[in-house]
Amino acid sequence: MFKRLLFLFALPIAALTFTSCGDNDEPEVAKNYEVTVSLAAPDGVSLQDITDLKVVVVNKISGAETNLSVDGGTAKQTLAAGEYDFRASGTAGDFKLNGLASASVYENKSVSIELSIVSGAGLVFKEIYYTGVMSYYWKDGFFELYNNSDEVQYLDGLIVGIVDGGFGVQSPWADENGNLPSRYPLTNITIYFPGSGTQYPVQPGKSVVVATVAINHSARELTDEDVTSPVDLSHADWNIYVPTQASDIEVEGIPNTLVAHSTWGLDFMPGVNGAALILAKLPEGKTVPDFVSDPANFQKTPGSELWDQLMIPNEYVVDGVDIVYSTEGQQFKRLLPSQDVGMAWVYGDAPGTESAYTGKSLRRKVIALTSEGRYVYKDTNNSSEDFIIGGQTPTPGRHDFAIDR
User: Fold this and answer.
1) How far apart, in whole angstroms, are the C-alpha atoms of residue 226 and residue 138?
2) Under 8 Å between Cβ of 30 and 82
3) φ, ψ at 296 (rounded to 5°)
């Protein structure tokens, strides 16, 4: 018995001796590389004029962020091998600037970021609710548009679209370097507001709630497995009505948005795990019906012959929110940095868990309350900073929040 125990005790030692004296293999160590980031200012702006210049490196797998120190338009950093996004932002006079570049770092690397003047207008997405509740109920979705300026804005002719892209994977519209096209492909159902130009004003500090179905969803009849919806949308300002779908409804007393183009779906549906949304305005004199009647404004998804996507030039976009999966390693951009240099997402009970059917929304942060009582929402075209990441209980039509820090 003693000999057997001695033999068994000796086995690990022998194994260790054999391992250490084998091929002299050293433990695998993560390799680090030096990355040099160079910034380029847009036409009419010099790097010396830019204040609050910031570069953030985001590991696309882990989501870890690293702030770089910028000196004279250049930043250097040693990074572990991997896939990264490089996000830059700053201010030049009255203009906000954003820039984005992606790079695979498996050698010493030079990365160039072209800064763009942030597009924007008075109307922004104040809140977006798309996750739905169990059991698999998503018709309680809404988005809320807010006039974040001190001038009257108009809904007339504004387009709201869901940008096509990969669900948890790289967008099929991206090129071999991960660069996105200058026109946004719109999928599902693209809607717009009626009006000849000034029929539907939104006063400063006011908002409109646009409901997938403008009813009281919190009063729906429940089964044992159902969860109560957190929203009553019976007082919404607009109802999204798709006349080609027999299951859709009109709501008395609430005006309908109009359908610009449809590829698939029973209703306007970003998806319960999120999708990028844009708010776009066509140039003066161009109507939505005229725009969608032009074949040049359509394109098929690369590698697919399923259907034509309506293509919106990025310069027509007045606000955009790049909503992505909550799962690390499945967060891929669909919007250009001039519209949104960051990303936003909702998660379930804990970070990294799925957003689907959680009953949570994304809300833009409040940064000020003016002396006139008007709330000012954060709008840097960086949804990673502008929105409350992780989500919250939906608040359609509410504007009584404390300033978000």
Assistant:
1) 12
2) no
3) -65, -15
Q: How far apart are CA 244 and CA 234, in angstroms?
A: 23
Tokens of 121: 């207008």
- Containing H/E element for 39? strand 32-40
Kindly report the length of the chain: 405
Going by C-alpha positions, the residue among 96, 85, 59, 90 that lies closest to residue 73 is 90
pLDDT lower than 50: segments of the chain: 1-22
Query: Are the C-beta atoms of 218 and 242 separated by less than 8 Å?
Result: no
How many CB atoms are closer than 10 A to CB 400? 8
| Integer Cα distance of 137 and 269 in angstroms | 12
pLDDT tens by residue, 255-264: 999 999 999 8
Nearest C-alpha neighbor of 238 from the set 223, 253, 219, 220? 253
Burial degree of 266 (CB within 10 A; 0-12, 13-18, 19+): middle
Max intra-chain CA distance, the chain: 97
Question: Per residue in 148-185, pLDDT tens?
Answer: 988 999 999 999 999 998 777 888 888 887 889 999 99
Query: Which residues does 281 contact at the CB level (< 8 Å), separation at least 6?
Result: 121, 157, 158, 159, 316, 318
Among residues 299, 243, 310, 268, the alpha carbon closest in space to that of 128 is found at: 268
Q: How many CB atoms lie within 10 A of CB 320?
A: 27
Domains and CATH numbers, the chain: 32-116 (2.60.40.1120), 118-405 (no CATH)
| Overall pTM > 0.85 | no
